[in-house]
Amino acid sequence: MALKMFYTAGKIEAGCDEAGRGCLAGPVIAAAVILPSDFKWPSLNDSKKMTEREREQAEPYIKENAIAWAIGFVDQVQIDQINILNASILAMQRALDQLKIIPQQILVDGNRFKQYKDIPHHCIIKGDGKYFSIAAASVLAKVERDRVMTALHEQYPMYAWSKNKGYPTQDHRAAIKKHGPCEHHRLTFNLLGDNQLSLDF
């Protein structure tokens, strides 16, 4: 299905998406992107359907050609405090806070969001596969988060974050069981993948 340029023609729309919601470690990172009406990038799609190489090629093009873009972070400590849903929304709103242009409308990937200032918003399930601005935000968020986790891998190589990026792979969970969690793990998450809700380390 071809991506759509706008939800409402003639309005300045910011697409928002996040990366890292399902991870066991690291921040949740979101992006907000406002694109021009003539924006084109043939392989742009939901970032999960793009290869790592495609995302890394698209990222600088999006940044150079967007009318405005910004990134928002919420770290693992705050995720544990306010839960991942609230943290994901907060990360998107932090990205919106940094846009150099105020949008007239916000398009959000998913089905949950909180009112941001007095700007109308639309929650769109699988929106990153439907609208260019949300797809662009998904790429920026994903590439930035992968970059953060790859850097953290240098400090904590035992978790292989350069490969799993903090997602709950079998190898990641085995490393947590062997070494225990570190300061970047989300301690309210089910780190071992069983019914154990917390770890006694």
Please explain how this structure is put together:
With 201 residues, this protein is α/β, with parallel strands linked by helices. The protein has helices at 52-65, 76-82, 84-97, 132-155, 161-164, 170-179, and strands at residues 13-19, 28-34, 68-74, 105-109, 121-124. A five-stranded mixed sheet has the order 3-2-1-4-5. Residues 196-201 have low confidence and may be disordered.
Task: Describe the protein's topology.
Elements (H helix, E strand, L loop, with lengths): L12 E7 L8 E7 L17 H14 L2 E7 L1 H7 L1 H14 L7 E5 L11 E4 L7 H24 L5 H4 L5 H10 L22
Query: What is the percent of helical residues?
Result: 25-40%
What is the molecular shape? globular
Global Rg: 17 Å
> What pattern of helices and strands is seen along the backbone?
EEHEHHEEHHH
Count of DSSP E strands?
5
Order the strands across the largest sheet as they lie in space.
3-2-1-4-5
* N- to C-terminal distance: 48 Å
Q: How would a textbook summarize the main sheet?
A: 5 strands, mixed
Helical/strand content category: alpha/beta
SS summary, helix count: 6
Average pLDDT confidence is: 94
Sum up the structure in keywords:
201 residues, alpha/beta, five-stranded mixed beta sheet, globular
